């Protein structure tokens, strides 16, 4: 018996949800692998590759390049910039990329920051670079963790009245509920953690079983991590879990929702309208989007 391909399944789901005359245009479909909760895919840089890149909503701009990639491709040096990891800042090299392609989507001629992203051993091998949130500006993005597919639409948007659709502020900051408490949280696909809270939130949440689980790190900061279980419902948009082991640290400034939590669900990002949704399935995600006007995006092919 013939089996349907993942692309055919997605097309059939689309056809069953959208009216025949009001479907969004064909999506860019990008297969990915989940490694430590993070989204990894093959990318081509200046026509060379494939290279291992990661999608990181916590990274502003178009992306990042590892120093090994810079050396291998002789990417032109463009000066120095500032890297802010949410706690500390540092200066960092800037380089120019002529083209970056993931799947059939290609964007070109932009500057990215560069540093060594492989100082410690990474699950899944060498990381050559990062695709930042600027790369997907102008698209509606569906990250379907259960099917290992990312879909990008130029002419669709999240319906604001749909259940669980959240409005976010800069850097994908949206509300997260823990029982009757609400926190502003960063939705961070580049984090390998579940959720990371400021240490002072432990008392508010009634978490008393804290234990040390080692050292965490960001670009410019190391911090002691403490683990504990929140024994009350935790909700993000349409999804809710009854209890969850999370991490706390004294250096955290706000809640961070990481890949090990997000990868249980389907994440929908609508940068044009500053909306996002976290839902249980691809079908749920597609029911929350509507066709919209196609936006001009001259840097995209």
Shape: globular
Number of helices: 5
Q: So what's the oligomer here?
A: single chain
Which stretches of 5+ consecutive residues score pLDDT under 50?
17-22, 294-299
Helix-strand string: HEEEEEHEEEEEEEEEEEHEEEEEEHEEHE
Number of beta strands: 25
Q: What value does the average pLDDT take? A: 87
Largest sheet: 9 strands, mixed
Strand portion, in percent? over 45%
SS-based structural class?
mainly beta
Question: What is the first-to-last residue Cα distance?
Answer: 37 Å
For the largest beta sheet, what order do the strands appear in spatially? 17-18-21-16-22-15-14-19-20
The helix content is 10-25%
Radius of gyration using CA atoms only: 19 Å
Explained architecture:
- The chain has 301 residues and is mainly beta.
- The protein contains five helices and 25 strands.
- The two termini are 37 Å apart.
Secondary structure elements and pairings:
Elements: H1 6-17, E1 28-31, E2 33-35, E3 38-45, E4 48-55, E5 63-66, H2 67-73, E6 77-84, E7 89-102, E8 105-115, E9 129-131, E10 140-144, E11 149-153, E12 156-158, E13 166-167, E14 173-178, E15 181-187, E16 195-198, H3 201-205, E17 211-217, E18 222-230, E19 234-236, E20 239-241, E21 244-249, E22 255-257, H4 259-262, E23 266-270, E24 275-279, H5 282-287, E25 289-291
Parallel strand pairs: 4-9, 5-8, 15-22, 16-21
Antiparallel strand pairs: 1-11, 2-3, 3-4, 3-7, 5-9, 6-7, 7-8, 10-11, 10-23, 12-25, 13-24, 14-15, 14-19, 16-22, 17-18, 18-21, 19-20, 23-24
């Amino acid at each position: 018996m013939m089996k349907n391909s993942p692309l055919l399944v997605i097309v059939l789901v689309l056809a069953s949800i959208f009216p025949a005359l009001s479907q969004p245009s064909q999506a860019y479909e990008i297969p990915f692998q989940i490694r430590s909760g993070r989204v990894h895919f093959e990318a081509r840089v200046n026509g060379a590759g494939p290279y291992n890149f990661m999608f990181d909503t916590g990274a502003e701009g178009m992306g990042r390049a590892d120093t090994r990639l810079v050396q291998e491709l002789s990417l032109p040096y463009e000066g120095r910039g500032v890297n802010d990891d949410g706690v500390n800042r540092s200066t960092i090299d800037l380089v120019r990329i002529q083209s970056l392609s993931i799947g059939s989507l290609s964007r070109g001629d932009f500057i990215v920051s560069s540093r060594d992203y492989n100082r410690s051993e990474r699950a899944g091998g060498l990381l050559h670079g990062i695709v930042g949130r600027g790369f997907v500006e102008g698209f509606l993005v569906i990250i379907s963790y259960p099917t290992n597919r990312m879909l990008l639409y130029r002419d669709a948007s999240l319906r604001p009245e749909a259940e669980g659709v959240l409005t976010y502020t800069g850097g994908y900051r949206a509300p997260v509920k823990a029982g009757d408490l609400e926190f502003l949280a960063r939705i961070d696909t580049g984090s390998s953690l579940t959720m990371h809270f400021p240490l002072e939130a432990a008392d508010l949440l009634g978490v008393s079983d804290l234990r040390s689980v080692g050292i965490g790190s960001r670009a410019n900061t190391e911090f002691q991590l403490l683990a504990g279980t929140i024994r009350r419902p935790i909700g993000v948009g349409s999804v809710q879990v009854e209890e969850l082991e999370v991490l706390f640290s004294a250096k955290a400034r706000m809640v961070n929702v990481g890949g090990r939590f997000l990868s249980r669900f389907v994440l929908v990002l609508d940068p044009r309208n500053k909306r996002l949704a976290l839902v249980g399935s691809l079908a749920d995600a597609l029911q929350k989007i509507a066709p919209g006007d196609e936006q001009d995006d001259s840097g995209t092919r």
